[in-house]
């Protein structure tokens, strides 16, 4: 670790920090009446139960990270939203503008593989960040990889390249490189934005109206990820522009716009370097975690890797390079990974709206609206509902002492997603009622494309509950030294969801696709109910699990030898 990196870590991460509230005046309703400084006193159990909990404001560095993510998501959605038409339709324009002519199933297969690849590669980025380079440097290097992939995509999508047969090969190479780049970014940018927030413990404060409140770091992390997700969806509104560029100019123009936007985001990332809070890598921490997991499995005991357990059973605690607290953190991370096990079902549902639902729109009366433009109602609904929830609904629930913990929010997200799929099935039924099916393809119907809107609104609302809470849970339950890795485990569930969606590709034809939508609606609803029954007890343990991080931040990464020496002592 360089001296510059050490200097970038603020001293306020020290365990005995003086607790200070941000004096930023751009707070939401929850904190706009909180006085500029907290009194530094930790609340007792009675105060935690009786006083209102509030969130803090975001530091400038967090907003900079959010801008970088906005540019990356602008790029990702702006280009990938065109993939279905790019791959499905032929270059001759007989079915509208296209390029590769691989038909519906071929397009769904390739776009689903791209989604799968983008959510496998975060594991690579996580290991590189947590063990070798740190989050910031890893993001910068993978941005360069991303830019190379985008450049290949632009060059091989120009008309001359397509006419000479470079389209398919260039597309495959591009999505492989882009998937590697976005994976390295995704596993690190979400924990990096939360790292910008310094407080680890609850603190007492007094509002300007004289009300005693508790500043709750967990609520601030929730707010950070709500804003982070809002920026993601502002970025995804690139689909308002790129489908028209595809239609009137060509696919290459939409891809070029995405390349330019991502280059701007990379520039912001580099120029804002001095503002970021940078946590250094922790050496062999990932290797140690896997070693500890192996000891748990071999001994069939979750506490087996603890030095205290080793001392009691083996008479020697120096055989492991960690302390008991590290194992407690690892056990908490495993809780999060068990929670994530249900997510692949959710991601199968979510993925339908960038593949099969785009093809469904192609069977409807567009009246001049490109069939891949309707996807924008997903981010638009998120942009509308996030401020509504954050400024009105959530503060009101906290004032009324109505708990709305992550497990409950995730369960609700699954249920709302099932409503989206059920609505998609209804739309598909209306299409069939208004058209005929010839050789497994539904003829163009007179059903207006706008009727798809409620399905996108449902999926958008479900994301606020399920996806945002998943990001939050992955950060708050991960050990400080494994934030990126646990985030990658959460993202990996999306890859599993894409793999399941790939298995469903043979059903992506008329009229079987209607029943696929119905089956996914039932599966998502059942998963939401079972999820709550299995994990709702974790809501009561939320504060205790989050408190594990309160005192374990050190401004410098301990060398492996130092950790071993401290354990022996």
From TrEMBL:
Database matches in InterPro entries: MFS_trans_sf, POT_fam
Tree of life domain: Eukaryota
Naturally occurring in which organism (per UniProt): Penicillium cosmopolitanum
Topology in membrane: Multi-pass membrane protein
Phosphoprotein is among the record's keywords: no
Transmembrane regions listed in the UniProt entry: 139-162, 168-194, 224-245, 251-272, 333-350, 380-397, 409-431, 455-476, 488-507, 513-535
Family matches, as CDD domains: MFS_PTR2
Protein's name according to its UniProt entry: Major facilitator superfamily (MFS) profile domain-containing protein
GO CC annotation terms, alphabetical: plasma membrane
Main subcellular localisation: membrane
